[in-house]
Amino acid sequence: MADDRCIGVFDSGIGGLTVVRELQRRLPNERIVYFGDTARVPYGIKSTQTVTRFSREICEFLLRFDPKVIVVACNTASAVALAELEEMLPVPVYGVVEPGAREAVLHAEGHTIAVIATEATILSDAYRKAMAKYNPGARVLQKPCPLFVPLVEEGRHSDDAITRAVVRDYLEPIVRLDPKVLVLGCTHYPLLKDAIAEVTGEGIRLVDSGEQTARVVVERLTALEALSVRTMKGSLSCYVSDNPQRFKELGQRFCGHPITDVTWVPHEQFLSHDAPSPVV
Q1: Which of 178, 210, 242 corresponds to the end of one domain?
Q2: pTM to 2 decimals?
Q3: What confidence tens digit (pLDDT) does each residue in 178-224 have?
Q4: Which of 47, 90, 192, 231 is most buried when burial is the number of CB atoms within 10 A of its CB?
Q5: 120 lies in a domain?
Q6: Helix (H) or strand (E) holding 236
Q7: CA 143, CA 114: separation in Å to the nearest integer?
């Protein structure tokens, strides 16, 4: 058996491309359709109801491309909307919280785990709840880092003085509490990994939830015998709700290669069922 349909991926903006990067590395022949909600980013400061509504709208859009799975490459949406999406979608849907939580518990070996994420993800308590499934007694520290996303979206790097100052301000109090594992609970955060590692040092293991999610998707597709058997190189088609040029410019940093296929979907088209031409 095989399944040549595409993999749908979405995020509140551009950060989910770090998950795409891992998917492409592991599944080079797959077609990926990505939606970045760049008009409504960030999700991390919005209410549960709003994030859930946005996530439903995006999934309905992605279903136009007949995906075999949908990956919620947004920690905030995974934390607050995944259960509802699992109920409404006719295809399997995978979030980024559970894989990261599982990996963190595995490496913590009973020691303290720290989680950094957006305000909405922290308030949802999704990581602590997910970790409790694997270790009911897990000690979990959670810290919102709301400035990390705008720093990344502005194109600032780990060696930027402002970035390093903000990272130190957020993380030095956590480091003093001596966790063994630090979960990067937002898909933007891997872009600041060098600055984060500089503060945490070698004694704290960093877990990238996006990377772990890509691994889980590969495992599930393999188990379902749903991998593509196409011999040609895979493709990435991106749709955004605003500013496609900026998405192209920043996207290369997230994906590790140029992004050429980016389509702007105006709000009225997005909500209607006037779908763009499917990827072939």
Answers
A1: 210
A2: 0.90
A3: 999 999 999 889 999 999 999 999 999 999 998 999 999 999 999 99
A4: 192
A5: yes
A6: strand 235-240
A7: 8
Residue after which a domain boundary falls, among 189, 210, 231:
210
Within this chain, do residues 144 and 230 fall inside the same structural domain, yes or no?
Answer: no
**Does 280 map to a domain?**
no
Annotated catalytic residue within 6, 59, 74, 145: 74
Q: Is the pLDDT assigned to residue 278 strictly greater than 50?
A: no
Residue 276 has pLDDT above 60, yes or no: no
Per-residue tokens: 22: 């891992």
Instruction: Give the pLDDT confidence score for residue 273 in this predicted structure.
Output: 57
Looking at the structure of the chain, the number of domains it has is 2
pLDDT in tens, 34-53: 999 999 988 888 999 999 99
Of 6, 59, 145, 186, which one is the catalytic site residue? Answer: 186
Q: Which domain holds residue 174?
A: 97-210
CA nearest neighbour of 33 among 66, 6, 5: 6
For residues 223 and 31, the answer to whether their CB atoms sit within 8 Å is no
For this structure, is 74 an active site residue? yes
- In 114-192, where does DSSP find H-type helix? 119-124, 126-134, 148-153, 161-175
CATH of the domain at 141: 3.40.50.1860
Q: Is 145 a catalytic site residue?
A: no
Same domain (yes/no): 54, 82: yes
